[in-house]
Amino acid sequence: MRRTVRFLLNDRQFSLEGFDPTLTLLDWLRNERRLIGTKEGCAEGDCGACTVLVGRLRQDGTGKTELRYEAINACIRFVATLDACHIVTVEHLKKASGGLHPVQQAMVELHGSQCGFCTPGIVMSLTALWLGAAEAPSRERIEEALAGNLCRCTGYGPIISALDRAYEIEASSADSLNVGRAEIARKLAGLADQDIIEISEGGRKLFAPATADQLAELTAAHPDATLVAGATDVGLWITKMLMRPATVITLGRVGELDRIEDKGDHLVIGALVSLSDARAALGALDPQIDELIRRFGSEQVRNAGTVGGNVANGSPIGDSPPVLIALGASVTLRRGGERRTVPLEQFFIAYKKQDRQPGDFVEALIVPKPKPGTLFHVSKISKRFDEDISAVCAAFRLERDGAGLTTNAVLAFGGMAATPKRAAAAEAALAGRSFNAEAAEAAALALASDFKPLDDWRASARYRSTVAANLIRRFQAETATGSVHRVAGILRSDAHA
């Protein structure tokens, strides 16, 4: 047992003990270290003003260890989750000579800042792209990286152009974080160990196991503990709801859960795999899945949030469950040395209630690959196109026989009920029929007996019902014409979807 959290902050090493288990990185940086370039805007991971870089040792696809930096939101990240990491704030970007980093210099030259409040976070998001990229990314890629950084006064034109200008000033390979990467990696390797970390203050505790067996022991000993992966939801419990969990177990050091295995006809995705890392594997199954994950919060959220956490959280408006249910995924639960596998559609029992016994934790997701000839469709309906929670999320999978008759239909929805749920009546309306306009209309009308959605501030019940039915009609129209736009299944908020 170790009672300290050890990490690098910019060019210094720290070892902290005896602090609030849910102390956020933002509060520690500003209040304890007086690094006030990192701002607090929303305190819920939306605005990006608190963006910093976190470097971690990771294994690439070949098993080789590499140091990778990612942009994250400091406002909802717990300090205790950053053991053996390198935290980089905007103050550390300056050159050894004291001059501005090329990204900063380009922002100045192109007038990419006005009030300046959001500027440090924007600079850190652009720097995350800058690191390791030999050439300037495409405009689309830059816009994607900036989707989690809100700026009210400048407009994004000069900000986007700034990264191109930065490459004209200096190649990214000359960045100090790239030049010194080997030494940083050596230091981080020296901080890593297999000890369980325990942080306690005022009767509250946080445990950070290093192995899956340690995690199983801790969850068995503390069945009421709050399990935290990326804290993209739990972080809001702390900053917005002012909750103070008595016991927290963080999963970030358990490398065994941070793996994707391709088993030929299915994928095994560890519970700790981030949404950013899962995107390539799941997106390869269908381009619409790739686009859905691209719109899953901001890049900062995707870098921290995990697939396992999104499932275990059990939200009825989580974006991944409908897709995973449509693919026929199962969830592997572990308690102690025992494991059981549950079809994901059966895992969700009621609002925020899942088929988990005390001491259970999500270990992995088993995701079958669609069979050749399978029809697949994904739609996300939200008020904002980027970085918004779904009003309705839908994923459809249709399998047919040689005569073109439907042998298996899975229509999964989020936002339509208290849990992510299949539309059983609508599926039955398609069974044994050609997937034509008449069949789609029957399925669309059958949704009325599948769901009685709620009215809330995201959408009215009537709106949700209308959109859900129209998505089935659209799926059939795209299939009939063969003109499916591979990302057009992701829709802006539109009652005529």
What do these coordinates show?
Helix 10 packs antiparallel against helix 11 and helix 16 (424-430) runs antiparallel to helix 17 (437-450). The chain is globular, with a radius of gyration of 23 Å. The protein has helices at 25-32, 102-109, 119-130, 139-146, 157-169, 176-179, 181-191, 212-221, 234-239, 275-283, 287-294, 299-304, 307-313, 320-327, 344-347, 424-430, 437-450, 461-481, and strands at 5-9, 12-16, 51-59, 65-73, 86-88, 197-201, 204-208, 226-228, 247-250, 260-262, 266-270, 330-335, 338-343, 348-350, 353-354, 361-368, 375-382, 392-400, 406-414, 421-422, 491-492. The model is unreliable at 484-497 (pLDDT under 50). The chain is built from 18 helices and 21 strands. It folds into three domains: 5-191, Ubiquitin-like (UB roll) (Roll); 197-253, Uridine Diphospho-n-acetylenolpyruvylglucosamine Reductase, domain 2; 258-492, Enolase-like, domain 1. The strands form five sheets. It has a five-stranded mixed beta sheet with strand order 2-1-5-3-4. It has a five-stranded antiparallel beta sheet with strand order 10-11-16-12-13. 48% of the residues are buried. With 497 residues, it is α+β, with helices and mostly antiparallel strands.
